[in-house]
Design brief:
3 helices; about 50% helix; alpha+beta
Length: about 240
């Protein structure tokens, strides 16, 4: 994020996550003695405060978005790993052209190789964190689908009126959509990290950039069939 001397003008604005969910409001910023914005303080709805690196905050007109640590770290690794790899290749070319000594090449190559090893280790650890997040998204989707099934059942038997049903249905569907967006985004992120770890420094998402698949239908195939509920109205003897 570019340093803006007027960031304090955003105090009080709502800040959302990458998928449109409200997180809280900007309360203040931490500024270094040199005047550089370092951190942002976010007031949550329950009264707690959240402190995040200001580089994770994106300003787009009146919209303020907090980028997750996972996405921020992935972005850094996606930039640094190919850069160090290209520098090491350029160093090798210089050595082959006899423009640097073998001793200097060996020293610099060892330095680049050490940095690459460290960055790849960080990328692998981050991939594991992303896999855990994806698994959590799957669980959330399953829970939301169960909530939707039960809502449908209660509405079908008349225990939930139309107004409440429509409100609850929209709320659950919106959450399913957001969880699906997050899962898709995480899958793209881990796929790119995997490509870089395998040595592919090209851009694997050019064909899919900006295209988010449609969210899954409410009743996922892995869910069990809803139970059949039969209600028998009690009648008197004369009603037989």
């Amino acid at each position: 994020m570019s340093q803006n001397p007027n960031l304090f003008l955003s105090v009080g604005k709502q800040i959302n996550d990458e998928y449109g969910r409200a997180i809280g409001k900007i309360a203040s910023f931490a500024v270094t003695p040199s005047g550089k914005f370092d951190s942002v303080f976010i007031a949550l709805g329950d009264g707690r405060f959240l402190k995040r690196c200001v580089d994770n905050v994106k300003f787009d007109g009146s919209e303020v978005t907090l980028v997750s640590n996972i996405k921020a770290q992935a972005g850094i690794l996606n930039d640094q790993i190919p850069l160090i790899w290209r520098k090491d290749q350029a160093l090798k070319d210089l050595s082959e052209k006899k423009k640097i000594s073998k001793e200097l090449y060996a020293e610099l190559h060892s330095s680049f190789d050490g940095v690459l090893t460290q960055l790849k280790s960080e990328a692998q650890t981050l991939r594991e964190e992303i896999e855990d997040e994806i698994a959590e998204c799957n669980e959330q989707t399953k829970d939301l689908n169960y909530a939707l099934v039960n809502l449908e059942i209660e509405h079908e038997i008349g225990k939930v009126d139309n107004q409440y049903y429509e409100t609850a249905f929209s709320m659950i569907q919106e959450n399913i959509k957001r969880v699906h967006m997050k899962k898709t985004d995480l899958e793209l992120t881990t796929s790119k990290l995997s490509s870089i770890l395998l040595g592919d420094t090209s851009k694997p998402f050019e064909q899919t950039k900006g295209k988010i698949p449609e969210p899954p239908k409410p009743f996922a195939s892995e869910l069990p069939e809803p139970p059949v509920v039969v209600y028998v109205k009690e009648i008197g003897k004369t009603g037989i």
